[in-house]
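User: Predict the complex.
Assistant: Input components as received:
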Amino acid sequence: MFSEPTLKYNCLNYIGKVGIMVEQKLQVTLLTGRTIEQGVGKEKGKASKEYFDACSMCYMDADDMKKLGVKNNTNILVSTPDGSVVLKAVKYPRSATPGLIYVPYGPWANAVCSNKTTSIGMPSFKGTPAEVEPAPEKLVLTMEELLMKEFGR
Amino acid sequence: MTVINSVTCPICGCVCDDIEVTVENNEVVKVKNGCAMCESKFLGYRGEHRLKTPLMRKDGKLVPVSMNEAVHAAAEVLANSTYPILYGWSSTSSEAQRIGVELTEEVGGIMDNTAVVCHGPSILGVQEVGESTCTLGQIRHRADLIIYWGCDPWSAHPRHLERYTSFTEGRFEKSEWKAYMQKLKSQAGQKKMQSAMRIETGGTQPRPQTCSVPGMPQTMSKDGRKLIVVDVRKTMSAEMADYFIQVEPNKDFELMQALRVLVRDEDLDVDKVAGVSVEYLKQVADALVNCEFGVIFFGMGLTQTAGKFRNIEIAIQLVRDLNTRTKFVIMPMRGHFNVTGANVVSAWQSGYPYAVDFSLGYPRYNPGETTCMDVLLREENDASLVIAADPGANFPKKAVENMVKHPLIVIDPHMNATSMLGDIVFPSAFVGIEVEGTAYRMDQVPLPLKKIVEPPKGILSDEEILSKILAEVKKIKSKKTAKKAEA
């Protein structure tokens, strides 16, 4: 179905003879979109915990998570040429989606979305290349923290 | 305790008008018939995130001010700007949108609505090749083949299937709910068998992959309504479908072109298109041609991926081809409850549905140039007014960065990302809960929104706030003209 996601290994970080990788990156296709949880959260209020929980996460393929050494509900760093953001990785429950990550619409998704409008006013919210790496030690920012970091307000 | 029937839901483009709301002491205590989002809004709209007074940014912080002070400050910003953006308009009434057009014309700015990041490309596609469409009522009663392409109604329009398509009891087409329940039961049985097999084989059985089953599923040859879902991943809606086509990301255009070829009884000289086997597509094309009344609903999976408005254009052309063989229509799955209204009002007032530029004194429309996203990315704006939308949360980072460089006026009931970033923030009443108005459903049918409770004291409607700002802008401008005349 999809082209096999490629792993980029940082050779300097191989430890000892067993070759344990402590850092690796996965090239993926970034999709953003709606989820019912995001819908419920946005109607309750964008400052609500429901909205934060629903939008500061990222659906990933179970096999991709294994390749990356990421467990369910651990944090990852999603990077694109337009920015990077820490999100909680969640296994996509319905099917295998190798090489795809899905982030619900919200300020977290827009921190990494492409703003290329191809001269028709619509940014490329779906189907743009991104890079994922594990970030268990980094924290997912709240909406206030994220807005402060990105826009200084 | 009062029970109010036939309340219109002000959330998504479905605009369900069968909600039953129980009100006690001016508060909604119970909601019947609604979806999860509907309940969340009606029961949670008065939560702690509600804005209670107008706010203005002073020394970097938002502080409460009086309504008059906020109105005057907002009017000053708009009257003194040369190229302001007036954006949003989709979660408010058409009455407020109408005043919005007048205000934008008065200040010589750009009026753009959320369609620009939603179904703007759909509008461009329709302007290229026209559109064959109908109302949701006709689909409910007559459609026997439903296609959801690049959209997940279960997540974004939860009652769409239940009210307008597969799971509704139409006059000529019956509900497929019972058949779906039977399918669920059999799937649950299959899952149990598979998990027993996995335990038996010590977990060596591979995970089932989607779209790996060869041939057409039996459900496609069944009687009654058929449901096809096309998406890049298996969504909940895809699980409900009789047939799910998993297309590769950014390849919808190719898939649709391939279907056009097959619908015209021509041959393809490849085995696979967009990751889907041609044999498979032939059977889908057969199903499309052999239905009596088919409909394609499409969403952001087409408008936000590679091709954008060209995807819509080709989808409409597929529908046109199908209309030579059978009856087919196409409809966008509009997001906000009144984004269709924003397009309709803008079109009837100015001639154009979105991205209307009044800076030359007359309406001008050139998507790519006058779309607010491009204006923001080119940093041409010098002020913004955002109403009934949240670009702070839904625009790419660079666009928001440029928006907050200049004065930002926000009108919204809630403290959302844009309100947090705003310089002047007006709290407004909820349209469809605290004030009445008109909303256009996704099929462009206007429906009345009811007022079911009183708004909190001192909270005005979008219409009233905009009228006040408009009056103040006119006052400031007439003073300026008088001064110039004196000089």
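Chain A has one domain: 7-151.
Let me know if you want any component modeled separately.
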